[in-house]
Amino acid sequence: MSQKIEFYDTTLRDGTQAENFDLSVGDKIRITRQLDKLGIDFIEGGWPGSNPKAVEYFEQMKGVELKYAKLSAFGSTRHFKNPADKDQNLQALLAAKTPAITIFGKSWDIHVHDALRIKLEDNLQIIEDSLAYLRPHVQHLIYDAEHFFDGFKKNREYCLATLGMAIRGGAETLALCDTNGGTLPHEIGPIIEQVKLFLAEQGSDVAIGIHPHNDSETAVANALIGVASGATQVQGTINGYGERCGNANLTSIIPSVVFKMGLEAEVGKNIKNLYSTSRLVNELANLPHNRYQPYVGESAFAHKGGVHVNAVRRNPVTYEHIVPEKVGNVRRILISEQSGKSNVQHKAEKYGLQLDANDPAMARIIEELKSLESKGFQYEGAEASFELLMRKAMGNHPDFFTLKGFRVINNKHRMDTSPLTEATIRLSVDGNEEHTASMGEGPVNALDRAMRKALLRFYPRLEEMELIDYKVRVLSGQHGTSAKVRVLVESRDKSTQWGTVGVSINIIEASWQALVDAINYKLMKDEQEAS
Question: What residue ranges of the chain are covered by domains with CATH 3.20.20.70?
Answer without folding.
Answer: 6-284
